[in-house]
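Dear colleague,

Thank you for sharing your sequence with our group. We've completed the structure prediction you requested, and as agreed, I am returning the results in plain text so they can be pasted directly into your records. Please verify that the sequence below matches your submission; if there's any discrepancy, let me know and we will rerun it promptly.
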Amino acid sequence: MRARSGNVQARRLSPGVKLAYSALLIPTSMLHAPALSIIPALYAKYSAVSFTGMGLRKPWIIAGMFLCCLGELSRDYAERSSLAAYRTFSYFLGIGLFLSLPLWPMFAGLEMTLEVTALASWLIVLSIRNADDS
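Please find the predicted structure tokens below.
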């Protein structure tokens, strides 16, 4: 099916393509939640390491910003809005999955511990690897 955007005809993406596009954001967002809030607290509790500056991470963050700006699946405004909605849903789903891990019955308490973050790490690695295989 084609949608008209001004003088340019744009091909509509199927929901399956949109889900495949946004699915990789789930494990990625599972990395964002701990990186911003959990890991610094775990480092402070279990080691003498602190995060006081950007150091060697700054060039990688800047490079990632440019890489994110390169990809565009559609030129149609409505289609890009739909893709953004899929990505936003996947992002919050990933954060919700990560934050719900301490509630899983295999853990004794409700705290974010090293065991919980280890499970999250394995889930992220396995989901990214499976996405790479398909």
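Summary note from our side: The longest strand covers residues 2-5.

Kind regards,
the structure core
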